[in-house]
């Protein structure tokens, strides 16, 4: 699992890449970040000082000038090299350590729970939908801080939906279909700006809906990819096909760099806690259709009411 190539401590020489240090290997450059476009302050909040399965993420003191491969309307920024330090564990093994709070977690149970989100009329029930998303958040959190930019946003959206479900109009928020009809009929959906109704249920679920599409695509790519597939590529492709279109340029660049530190495909499959990787692949094939069906029903509803591009 050790990356090819090695180098000296970045403190003693140029540090122009992503460096990993294990207890015996010295410093190893994993990926060169010179060509990556990294938004300094936003990425610092995303990665700097965070803990990823016992791994410390720190920023080197030096900076590199941002390459001149940008659009004219994009800001000039600096690229700050990243290095990853493993205090007491071999490379990649620290990814496999789960927090005590994740004991007993099983992704199959979470994915199959999406089956309960649709009633006999194929309406999306919001209580099971919220509960299923909470399980997905546990899975994302079990993988460390790399996915925090998504899980934190999802948690805030789930809190909004729980307030609506517990509010005076709770009966109007039993199903996604009832919610859309209620909010459109009551003019609670701001179709042009966010300022008037920034926390409408329609807008909130749309953000969850987009994130669900990304996760569905990523899990499907993990299922169908070969054993040596690079998870950073799989995750980036899934992100570009779903969430990227709805994020500003500065976030897209920071996220792309963060994905460079993802664990291997095997580690992802083992984190699902359903058995060996082969069993996890089989489970995904059986369970992902439940997510896909919920997504398709929601997508059709939003498209029928022209709500897919809510600001």
From TrEMBL:
Q: Keyword NADP on this protein?
A: no
The cross-references to Gene3D superfamilies, in alphabetical order and at most eight, read: Glycolipid transfer protein (1.10.3520.10)
Entry-linked InterPro entries: GLTP_sf, Glycolipid_transfer_prot_dom
| Location of the protein in the cell | Cell membrane; Cytoplasm, Cytosol; Endosome membrane; Golgi apparatus, trans-Golgi network membrane
Q: What are the GO cellular component annotations?
A: cytosol; endosome membrane; Golgi apparatus; nuclear outer membrane; plasma membrane
Location of the Glycolipid transfer protein domain: 125-273
- Give me the segments passing through the membrane: none
Give GO MF terms, alphabetically: ceramide 1-phosphate binding; ceramide 1-phosphate transfer activity
- Family named by the database record: Belongs to the GLTP family.
Name this polypeptide is given? Ceramide-1-phosphate transfer protein
């Amino acid at each position: 699992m050790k990356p090819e190539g090695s180098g000296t401590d970045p403190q003693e020489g140029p540090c122009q890449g992503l460096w990993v240090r294990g207890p015996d290997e010295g410093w190893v450059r994993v990926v060169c970040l010179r060509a990556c476009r990294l938004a300094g302050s936003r990425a610092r909040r995303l990665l700097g000082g965070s803990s990823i399965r016992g791994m410390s993420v720190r920023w080197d003191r030096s900076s590199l000038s941002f390459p001149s491969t940008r659009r004219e309307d994009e800001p000039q920024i600096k690229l700050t090299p990243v290095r990853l330090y493993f205090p007491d564990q071999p490379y990649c093994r620290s990814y496999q350590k789960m927090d005590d709070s994740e004991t007993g977690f099983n992704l199959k149970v979470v994915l199959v729970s999406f089956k309960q989100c649709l009633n006999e009329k194929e309406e999306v029930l919001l209580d099971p939908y919220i509960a299923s998303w909470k399980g997905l958040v546990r899975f994302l959190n079990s993988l460390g801080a790399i996915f925090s930019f998504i899980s934190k946003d999802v948690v805030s959206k789930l809190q909004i939906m729980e307030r609506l479900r517990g509010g005076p109009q709770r009966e109007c928020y039993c199903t996604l279909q009832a919610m859309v009809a209620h909010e459109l009929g009551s003019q609670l959906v701001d179709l042009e700006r966010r300022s008037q109704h920034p926390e409408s249920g329609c807008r909130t679920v749309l953000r969850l809906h987009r994130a669900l599409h990304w996760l569905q695509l990523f899990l499907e790519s993990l299922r169908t990819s070969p054993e040596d597939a690079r998870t950073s590529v799989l995750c980036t492709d899934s992100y570009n096909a779903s969430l990227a279109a709805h994020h500003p340029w500065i976030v897209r660049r920071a996220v792309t760099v963060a994905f460079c530190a993802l664990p291997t495909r095997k580690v992802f499959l083992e984190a699902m806690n359903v058995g060996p990787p082969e069993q996890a692949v089989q489970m995904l094939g059986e369970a992902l259709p439940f997510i896909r069906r919920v997504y398709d029903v929601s997508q059709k509803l939003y498209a029928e009411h022209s709500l897919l591009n809510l600001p």
